[in-house]
## 1
Amino acid sequence: IAKTAASGGPGLHPEVLAFTSSLALDKALLTEDLVGSIAHLTMLSRTRLIPSEDARAIREQLVAIWKGAQAGTLVLADEEDVHMAVEAEITRVLGERAGLLHTARSRNDQVALDLRLHVREKVAEVLGVLAKLLEGLAARAEAERETLLPSYTHRQRAQPISLAYLLCGYGAMFTRDVDALGFVLEQVSALPLGVGAIGGTSLPIDREVTRELLRFPRLTMNGLDTVGDRDFAMDFAYAAMRSLLHASRVATDFYDFASPEFGFVKLDGEIACGSSMMPQKRNPDVFELIRGKSGRAVGNLNTLAVLVKGLPGGYSRDLQEDRQVLLETGPLLTSVLSMLHLALGKVHFDKERCFAAVESDYMQATDVAEALAMKGIPFRTAYKATGALVRACQERGLPLAKVTLELAQSVDPRFDAEVLKSADPRRAVERKANAGGTGPASVEKQIAELKSHAARA
Ligand code: ARG
């Protein structure tokens, strides 16, 4: 049962303590809490609000708590939250002097700080993972410039592309995640500490000292806003959700590609999971779970939004319920993105089969129509003529790449040998030279873009 005054006094019913406690979750914020307390303590001592020898004694205890946590010997008292548990521990050793630490501070600004420190740390971690993922995609793209495979719209074969282009397409999504996390960092970078419970403090503190010690570029503007603000948490949850939606969509591609119906990739034994009954199975569980786990991020963002919606200005205890989803976000993101990086390194493309899919179909039809259009024929006319040619080929069971000049001219006399050359899938890919296309020059630029985002992350 909690002993400290802030926990509700000696009268608090044990079930109420259990119901209101967040210790089980927010003990994960112990390091952030200690770091914040040490900075606050230093500020109190520098501004002479508390005697330096008391500050030193308290600091020693805060460090001892951290060491105990590292060594696994720390036992936190059964308090309402990690903040009270730390205070209880210092009080156990130092007695009344421990109470100096909470001068000009509320748990409302304290928890806002802990959460911001946590998000800052996690964003840095995730950026590291994204950098590796982007580097991996760029390197693989460099190795797969010559590999061709179909692209899809409506999950129907669309146009031939290089595998490098597909990988750059994945990378493009993750470059936006780097940008989104940059925004999160920018949002989280205001120091909340010093606004107290809501209205500030009459004690002559110096928020600038704490700001510099904790390396925040600016202070939050208004205490009322600060203690009730979880926008930074939602920004992180949103960036995380978006990144995981990207991971999920990549996973679905490989989930499909690994099925014999596509037959484009073989999963390395290291990532293929078996069945407890069917001996022949090599299942893409890794990709399924990347997709499945990503769904949690959608729920997490929703949880935060619903939590904040309808709260009045200032702090409400509801906000404590941000803990579970926020603390899950960083590890979820890191584990899924790292696994995607690992798994992508362990898929083997069946290049022949990919090329056969490209060659045996009609995906170069647009290129043939465009070649006709280049001769001055209106595109819509060229489109119709090529459509008729495709149907003529289909009736004869002939892939577009194998069409004869004779057949083409019987469909429309404007087809010539030069136009038919564009039915060659390699040429179809090579000729897409514009920015953003699958042509080699464009893909080189895209690879460079992935690398520069990786370096920036
Ligand atoms: N455990 C609380 C939370 O996480 C700390 C803040 C409590 N503030 C209060 N006024 N009871 O939100």
## 2
Amino acid sequence: SGSGHPDIDEVLVSSSEIAAKIAELAARVDADYAGREILLVGVLKGAVMVMADLSRALHVPLTMEFMAVSSYGSSTSSSGVVRILKDLDRSIEGRDVLVVEDIIDSGLTLSWLLKNLRSRGPASLEVLALFRKPEAITVDVDVRYVGFDIPSAFVVGYGLDYSEYYRTLPFVGTLTPAAIERGAPS
Ligand code: PRP
Ligand code: MN
Ligand code: MG
């Protein structure tokens, strides 16, 4: 596989591809928000890597907030039931909010989150997601910035987890059947 990690079957997006894409997305965001201030809302925990890299690549004034939401179940697919584990610390009323996500899979988390945030009266509300799976298209979520459209395989790395593991891998890839079976890193 060439990843150097025994649990990784195939690398789908390399760390250098991710870095280049983040730089490209940051340039677009900088241009679109010129003269304004952004409130980045990172969706814990998956978005931590994108937040860390994107925020440092941006030049417009920004502040960061985090929200922790999770779909029920810790397995390889999402259920659509979303719970707030940690809400925002402050009001987003009148703010230019950019929600930062690692991945849109079914789109259910984001669809729910956008409805929730829209009700709080932001001046604008946009989404940046580094990865998106084809199924996400079936849900009515308007995502302004998408990094990569990837196949529907279960993937880990760069924030994406399997049973909370593998988030720190610098690339995104698929797990070997043995690693999935084991449910923990080797
Ligand atoms: C993952 C991912 C997205 C969401 C996408 O989060 O980080 O937030 O699922 O799935 P969906 O489009 O089908 O709703 P998860 O709920 O696993 O929590 P985590 O970020 O803490 O891993
Ligand atoms: Mn998440
Ligand atoms: Mg997860």
